[in-house]
Specification:
GO molecular function, one term: serine-type endopeptidase activity
Strand content: 25-35%
Shape: globular
Radius of gyration: 26 Å
Keywords: Glycoprotein, Hydrolase, Protease, Secreted, Serine protease, Signal
Number of strands: 33
Bound molecules: 2-acetamido-2-deoxy-beta-D-glucopyranose
Largest sheet: 7 strands, parallel
Subcellular location: Secreted
Pfam family, one: fn3_6
GO cellular component, one term: extracellular region
Length: 747
């Protein structure tokens, strides 16, 4: 298939720093100095599983230490983390030579320099149909008793989102620690830092972790708003769930810390893990998030991760393992409207979180910052407007050029500009974001930007103003897939459709450590930020609700319920669109937009037991050792009944069809979680260029939890020139629609 190589330029800025993700994996070893003691780097060391079983953690630790190079005692600390659950191995500070020597030792599987992973809502519960005292929220008891572990930048105790009003004490199984003195309560039950050199509590200097944690499980807070906008009652998706923060991100999110945090979280007894960070596409046996997540699902812990912010190009996902829920980002029906009005009377849609109430409605001179022909000026890069006359004017700046959206406004403001119109580049199309700008501003789509440029060209004295209209709800085209949301296919496993799901990730209001308006007299501080980092915790919270209402469901069952009930249309009943304002494809939406209430009652589920992944992993042609690293047991692929990737009992189909290949048949097993006596017949929305046949015609159940198997045969028609096409297999009963998305990739 064709993959565009264009990369969305990361936009660094005060706010977007954390939310727009860079997927590059930088081995720390390269970054460190190459001399003396400074040449020490953290390495992740995987060992062959020992024959015997260690009675105690301390024995395992002792065995790990026996692999460390001999140094003068007390000279330096080599061991960084000694892993107990997620992998057989440890993280240690080594020189490059020591690491090389260690690789050759008997019993060592692999030694690699640790990677650095990057960090990738008053209204969203309501938008997703969750209402107080009604339906699913009530039925799931708001996630009561469920523990959500969040790996992030830390947390802000004392914030009203983390108040424990109405919260029961943590369940007896909870073994975690909370190191905030006086800051912990029945809401925030765990808080530790794994960041190197940080001994104190996991304070959030960044904001990202406070925001994601409150989105997943924040308590109700009345009158939450930013600059008065989006005012309402804020709450997380699971407002009565407990939260545990595992701080893993300081300057970056180090792999050794992520692994250590997941190791601790599964031991502590979390039920759901939420990771709004990622490291790009990495083979599962080398991806510490995938490794940690596998151990988590073995213990029944659900793992939700952000898909990445590298869209809209294809093949840009992070966190692709099939045992992880991979979450893309979409808009909500709320916009914080800032309408640009031109001298010719034309008005357009635009957004800004900062809404000054004293901005004059009179027309001001309008200027295009790039009129001097300089790219830096067009992007309103820092220092680029020194020689441009912007004083008292409305300045049209272009998005991109590796400059933060808010920083562009700062440059306009610093040079005396009155306001900014920020126009998208072509790639970002119609996707706009309500940012906390530093001056009167509006963010508009690419075509609107072109119209404004055209107007500027058409007149000697172009003028414009911005009309601030505040919070506007009910946008019928919501949800839309936003431009930055990373897209499939999964580069590690073409036979699994990814992302799995989309959820709210644009202009999300949630808790923040400080006031972005410089108000100091309140702890009730909020901010609105965007990213798949924001959509991930929405799904983590929803998984907690499902866990609460269906304690016996496995992580795969919860995921299946979320996927097969997802919505394929927007509020207006039309297909979901992307940043081009045309129908979003399946590599953007996955199974569609999460519908929590429907997920609570899916009718059928596609279940997967942890050991079912072994034949799948062998089918990826991983070595026995690589599969063993993931599943933490000795594996012999030649004695497994290896399956093709697409044969995994996944709630979607991703089928590679070669020109000359024959037909391919896959089976699926569904479990009845609806009424005991129910029967389903199918409808197929056939992907263009593919013949699909399904057997049997009907599947019937007489008991709850009864399983039935069906098979689907796919064959490619002649003369297909598409890269891929998509369809849907729908099992329909009197009460339920079980949607199973299909993508056919033409090789
Ligand atoms: C809410 O759920 C409880 C049980 O958890 C039930 O007794 C009550 O009737 C429900 N309330 C509504 C309004 O559905
Ligand atoms: C704000 O939070 C701190 C804890 O960080 C707490 O001591 C203080 O009482 C809180 N203030 C208000 C007004 O709730
Ligand atoms: C937010 O809404 C509440 C309740 O409707 C109201 O009392 C409060 O003044 C509002 N705050 C702002 C900043 O609009
Ligand atoms: C505006 O004029 C400039 C300079 O002549 C030209 O390069 C640009 O394409 C024009 N823009 C539009 C949208 O017409
Ligand atoms: C907040 O206050 C500080 C110090 O008074 C000031 O430097 C900063 O610009 C203010 N920030 C905003 C967003 O107003
Ligand atoms: C998107 O497309 C629809 C239908 O094609 C159209 O009605 C709508 O105006 C478009 N939206 C924008 C922002 O141009
Ligand atoms: C694994 O190897 C077999 C045999 O070479 C090949 O047919 C198959 O496509 C490979 N699978 C993957 C996922 O690469
Ligand atoms: C793996 O299984 C095959 C087939 O059962 C067997 O021949 C082979 O000896 C096994 N390999 C190991 C290392 O146990
Ligand atoms: C397939 O396309 C080729 C070239 O366009 C054409 O010659 C041939 O007749 C087509 N075959 C079928 C079955 O349509």
């Amino acid at each position: 298939m064709k993959r565009r190589s264009t990369k969305l330029v990361p936009e660094m800025g005060a706010i977007c720093l954390v939310t727009l993700v860079f997927m590059f994996i930088v081995p720390l070893a390269v970054a460190s100095k190459e001399n003396g003691e400074n040449s020490l780097s953290t390495y992740i060391v995987h060992l062959k599983k020992p024959k015997g079983v260690f009675a105690q953690a301390v024995d395992l630790d002792g065995w790990y230490r026996s692999f460390l190079p001999v140094t003068i005692p007390g000279q330096r600390t080599q061991m960084v983390f000694s892993y107990q659950n997620v992998v057989t191995g440890f993280a240690a500070k080594l020189t490059a030579e020591e690491a090389e020597a260690m690789k050759r030792k008997e019993g060592i599987k692999s030694v690699w320099p640790e990677k650095v992973y990057s960090l990738h809502t008053t209204h969203s519960p309501d938008f997703m149909g969750l209402q107080q005292n009604l339906g699913f929220w009530n039925q799931s008891n708001y996630g009561r008793g469920v523990i959500i572990g969040v790996l992030d930048t830390g947390i802000t105790p004392g914030h009203p989102s983390f108040s424990d009003e109405g919260m029961p004490p943590p369940p007896a199984k909870w073994k975690g620690k909370c190191v905030f003195e006086g800051g912990c309560n029945n809401k925030l039950i765990g808080a530790r830092s794994f960041v190197e050199g940080e001994v104190g509590p996991p304070a959030d200097e960044e904001g990202h972790g406070t925001h994601t944690a409150s989105t997943a499980g924040g308590n109700f807070v009345k009158g939450a708003n930013v600059f008065g906008n989006a005012n309402g009652t804020a709450s997380g998706m699971a407002p009565l769930a407990h939260l545990a923060m595992y701080k893993v991100c300081g300057a970056g999110c180090s792999e050794s810390a992520i692994l250590a945090a997941m190791d601790a979280a599964v031991e502590d007894g979390v039920d759901v893990l939420s990771l709004s960070l990622g490291g790009g596409s990495i083979p599962f046996y080398m991806d510490s998030i995938a490794l940690g997540a596998f151990t988590a699902i073995q213990k029944g812990v659900f793992v939700s991760c952000s898909a990445g912010n590298e869209g809209p190009s294809y093949g840009t996902l992070s966190n692709e393992a099939p045992w992880i829920l991979t979450v893309g980002a979409s808009t909500t029906d709320r916009s914080i409207a800032a309408v640009p009005k031109l001298g010719n009377g034309l008005t357009f849609d635009g957004e800004s979180l900062y809404q000054p109430n004293d901005f004059p409605s009179m027309l001001l001179p309008l200027v295009y910052s790039g009129a001097n022909g300089k790219a830096a000026s067009a992007f309103c890069a820092p220092g680029s407007l020194k020689d441009v006359d912007v004083k008292g004017k409305v300045v049209l700046c272009e998005r991109g050029g590796d400059i933060g959206r808010i920083d562009k406004g700062q440059e306009v403001k610093d040079n005396g500009g009155a306001a900014m119109i920020l126009m998208n580049d072509k790639l970002n199309g119609f996707s706009t974001i309500a940012d906390p700008h530093v001056l009167p501003a509006t963010h508009v789509g690419y075509e609107t930007g072109l119209s404004i440029q055209k107007y500027i060209n058409s007149t000697m004295n172009p003028t414009a103003t911005i009309i601030f209209k505040g919070t506007v709800l009910g946008k019928q085209t919501a949800p839309e897939v936003t431009s930055f949301s990373s897209r499939g296919p999964s580069l590690q496993s073409f036979g699994i459709l990814k992302p799995d799901i989309i959820g709210p990730g644009v202009s999300i209001l949630a808790a923040w450590p400080v006031s972005v308006e410089n108000k100091t007299n309140t702890n009730s501080t909020f901010n609105m930020i965007s990213g798949t980092s924001m959509s991930c915790p929405h799904l983590s919270g929803i998984a907690a609700l499902l866990k609460s209402s269906h304690p016996d469901w496995s992580p795969a069952a919860i995921k299946s319920a979320i996927m097969t009930t997802a919505s394929l249309v927007n509020l207006g009943g039309n297909t979901i669109v992307d940043e081009t304002n045309t129908t979003a494809d399946i590599f953007a939406t996955g199974a569609g937009h999460v519908n929590p209430s429907k997920a609570n009652d899916p009718g059928l589920i596609y279940d997967i037991q942890p050991d079912d992944y072994i034949p799948y992993l062998c089918g990826l042609n991983y070595t026995d050792e690589e599969v063993g690293t993931i599943v933490q047991q000795t594996v012999n692929c030649s004695s497994e009944s290896i399956i093709a990737e697409a044969e995994l009992n996944y709630p979607s189909f991703s089928i590679l069809l070669a020109e000359s290949g024959g037909s391919q048949t896959y089976t699926r097993t569904v479990t009845n979680v609806g009424p005991a006596s129910s029967s389903y017949t199918y409808e197929v929305f056939v992907p263009t260029g593919v013949d699909v046949s399904v057997k049997p015609e009907e599947i019937a159940f007489t008991e709850v939890n009864q399983k039935q198997t069906y098979s689907v045969t796919f064959s490619r028609q002649k003369n297909i020139s598409l890269p891929f096409s998509q369809g849907l297999l729908k099992w329909v009963s009197a009460q339920h629609d079980v949607n199973t998305p299909i993508v056919a990739i033409f090789e």
